[in-house]
Amino acid sequence: MELGEPQELLVPSNTTESEGSETLAALFEPLVNYDENKNAVEAAAESITSEDQKVWTIKIKPGYTWHNGEPLIAQNYVDAWNYAANQENAQSAGYFFGRVDGFADLNPGEGKPVTAKGMKGLEAVDDTTLKVTLTAPFSQFKVMLGYTAFYPLPKAAFGADGKVTNEYGEKPIGQGLFKMDKPFKKGTDQTIDMSVYDKYPGAKPKNWTKLQFKLYTNSDTAFNDLQADNLDIHDSLGPAAISTAKATLGERYQDQPDAGVGYIGVPLKYNDELNKVDIRKAISMAIDRKTIAETVFSGTRSPADDFINPAIAGYRQGACKACTYNPAEAKKLYESAGGPKKLEIGYNADGPHKEWIEAIANNLKANLGIDATAKPFEKFASILDELDSKKYKGLFRMGWAIDYPSAENYLSPIFSTGAIATGSNYGGYSNKAFDDLIAKGDQAASVEEGLKFYQQADDILNEELPYIPVYFYRNNSGYSSKVKNVKINLLNQVEWADVEKV
């Protein structure tokens, strides 16, 4: 299986990017999975119930054990979630626990010590019952629980100091379908090796037991290996491969809907030159999305016109007015707003992004009359690290593959003020009206009522363009002649139990 190198060690609460998430999904069983209608269905959970959408009771399904043989218990979730939420642990997914009562006690602010032992809204009632109290009702809570951040952790994950150890991050003990064969030495190892866990209570592959993630820094190299049957599954084919994959692979090429969005990110908080809305609108209007989707991606992308993907309830066609190609108006607006004469767009070269980022740079050069260049970073982890450390001030390639099927997931984890410190808000965007609308959506009496507020928050993004939506993904994957029945799910992860060897 093809993979880019994970950004961090393999700790669920510190994993917010696709490569690490895909690895961890093989090792852990989430509380919920998602069916074909995008509804949350219990997985490691027996039941998830609430009478008021504020106090939730999670019953754990019997039969799950950790890869070291210990039983899965409710306290494992309490320990993992408290660790994730504590600001002293600086976990990148800590933001997702912000709705749990007591999160504020674990996040008193920079320079202030944490005095609470955990979130008061978390309680292991007994070994199989977890009680979660939120600060306010949140109708989407059950839907969230399939996300990586909500995986549990065994006692063995923690050292004497209460921190998750590096040894655990290199060889995580999970309670899912696969277990690690050996530690993964990030930066050195080119593979992540696993075996089926015999005591996993769910469905297992019928005729194979070994899974290897093979790390690539070039998508085209992976495609060459796939064609030579030296790689069994490639689930993120690049533009160059897509144009020939159908003819080369035949029925082994798959093109299916995907809930992701491809953006040009804007470092608003770290580059004053891009702070004017009209500059961002001009950049957006200078991008020929239709040609990029049809030519660069061989028709396997569609032009983005909203921050919410059409696969999820809440999308509105044409919601982003500045996403319409209008080069003449773009140049006029850019010049009147005093846009910078030079723009750089950073992208990760270990993914299939060179062609479309260069196409956008050419659009900006031609339509705005500026010097626009594409800057490759060797790995996705590299650009994320530079964004995390506030070093990179150029525009940047960014994508969002959903964590869970809700309109809210396209909004608050990327653009809310709380997501700057402990989420995926790499641009540093902050807008109180946006945050307030998200809160109203969270606390609405029903999913339908909440969606109205999320769409109003989405309207703010479409007007201010903290990121610039470029395209909606489709999932383009291929597999070798050695396997069959390969399915990619809503989270862009392989359904491993279904895969069969030929």
UniProtKB/TrEMBL annotation:
GO molecular function: peptide transmembrane transporter activity
Coiled coil spans: none
Species this protein is from: Nonomuraea zeae
One Pfam family it belongs to: SBP_bac_5
Chain residue ranges for the region called Disordered: 1-20
SUPFAM superfamilies xref list: Periplasmic binding protein-like II (SSF53850)
Protein name in UniProt: ABC transporter substrate-binding protein
GO BP: any one term: peptide transport
GO cellular component term, pick one: periplasmic space
InterPro entries hit by this protein: Peptide/Ni-bd, SBP_5, SBP_5_dom
